[in-house]
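WARN retry 2 of 3 for item q-0093 after timeout on previous attempt; input resubmitted unchanged.
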Amino acid sequence: MCSYFRAAILSPADRGHLHFECIDDCFANTTLGDIQGIDFPGALAKKPFSNVWSAWKIASIFIRNNIDMATKMNLCREQKMMLDVDALVRVLMVAYNTCEEWTDFICSATRITKHAPIDTYAVDRPYEEALRRVKEAVADMTRRNRPAKEGPMGFAAPESARMLEKDGEQIGIRARVIVKFGQLREVVVEKAFSTWVIVWPLDIHTDQPDIEAVALAAQQHMQAGGHKVTAWPPLSSYNRVKWMIMSKLWKALDDKLLACAGVKKMATASNSHIEENKIFIEEGTPEGAGQYY
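OK item q-0093 returned
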């Protein structure tokens, strides 16, 4: 359904226009009271939603918390304009959840390049900001609702944990020693595991395609309901220089995967950082516990 595009909206007949109403009249039974987080008094909550523009104008008055209800009612009666981005976000969420045409538009549009003025008001910038925030909220809800994946635990282990390749099965862990991103690329696509514990390889000569493939496979695993735990390999005086160089990549991978992970779908075990060529390691993290591997 969702093909991405930049929207130039010039007519009320265009999907995404603030006056747009679909042929199925999806808002027929929708009221202002359906807008979450805004208190509409008495019968005003039963007033028809009508369309996004109409609801936005009224919601922008009643979302304010710096004026009393009597003043809000007076502003509403006089049809004062005080367009508020937060109010539009809430109104768009109602449209997203009520009308399939609006669902499609919000999923599909990447930005608002142009929207025809309404009643001489330019709405392009607040609309684009609100659309961005709604898309972020929808993406977050999608991540939260991903189902949990069932299966064994996979462990992409550093070389110092080689014994786990043999003994890990006894405690429910299927371990594979990984020293290069190319190797990790081959094993991380395994979809049977409910959880992957990955110790990032200390691979100074890795290739960009391998890194991108690993990141993509990790994202897809979490999208399918899997869980991820990442850690950095043990630090020693022998690998210090390489470790410092690779730490930038490991941190970037952690941040990228965390950004697309759902709630409780991913954990990172490292909290190390480098300042003035000195490595600061949090006590108890894997990179400082090589003797336990």
